[in-house]
Amino acid sequence: MHVRAVIFDLDDTLFPQRRILGELAASLGIGGCPNSLRELHAGLGDQAPPLAALRRQLLARLRPDPQRNERLADLACCIPVAIATNGGPGQREKIRRLGLAGVIRQVFVSGELGARKPDPAFFAPVLAWANLPACHCLFVGDDPVCDIAGAQRAGLRTAWIDSGDRAPPSPAPDLAAATIEDLLPLIEPC
């Protein structure tokens, strides 16, 4: 697919957050795979450590993926690349720990923008940064509603990271792949 800018979601798109949360949950003696740090915290009940302590444990598990980062750096040499994610200031620490801060320099965090995906207002500053018509930009994400439907409503083309545990987005994305590594070769900068 030919595009002139690519914007990536962070959690469960550029790294497997739910898998890491599942590992953290198992290390704390609870089963299942929580979808968020808050869900993990709630699942621990009265025995839960402070949320900040769980956040530190999650961050300690994050490691750079040199191959992924090299592929993203190659893409960023050709076209503008950004990260656009829901969350607060902790998202920037995740980006740093994953080794992405030096690879993808433009980051949009909902807590800093005053709008969250899927609200089209979230995508307005992203598109202003790209300085391109939305139809020339590709948004890559894992969440069928927040990422795919939200980006489609804002006019962007979309690529879905399909982990196999969610219903497919409707309308369908322009591209779909099981992992970011599978998706990157399908993106052709023009």
- Give me the CATH architecture of the largest domain, please: 3-Layer(aba) Sandwich
Measured distance between first and last alpha carbons: 9 Å
Number of helices: 9
Low-confidence stretches: none
The mean pLDDT is 94
Q: In angstroms, what is the radius of gyration? A: 16 Å
Q: CATH first level of the largest domain: which class?
A: Alpha Beta
Strand order of the largest sheet: 4-3-2-5-6-7
- What is the N-to-C order of secondary-structure elements (H for helix, E for strand)? EEHHHHEHEHHEHEEHE
The biggest sheet, with number of strands, parallel, antiparallel or mixed sense and barrel status, is: 6 strands, parallel
CATH-defined topology of the largest domain: Rossmann fold
Number of strands: 8
Helix content: 40-55%
Strand content: 15-25%
Structural class label: alpha/beta
**Count of separate structural domains:** 2
Provide structural commentary.
With 190 residues, the chain is α/β, with parallel strands linked by helices. It folds into 2 domains: 2-16 and 63-189, Rossmann fold (3-Layer(aba) Sandwich); 17-60, no CATH class. The mean pLDDT is 94. The strands form 2 sheets. The chain has a 6-stranded parallel sheet with strand order 4-3-2-5-6-7, sandwiched between helices. Strands 1-8 form a two-stranded parallel ribbon. The longest helix is centred in the middle third of the chain and has 13 residues, at 66-78. The chain is globular. The protein is built from 9 helices and 8 strands. The chain has helices at residues 17-27, 37-43, 51-60, 66-78, 90-97, 110-113, 120-130, 144-153, 180-183, and strands at residues 2-3, 5-8, 81-85, 106-109, 137-141, 157-161, 175-177, 188-189. Strand 3 (81-85), helix 5 and strand 4 form a beta-alpha-beta unit. Helix content is 41%, strand content 16%.
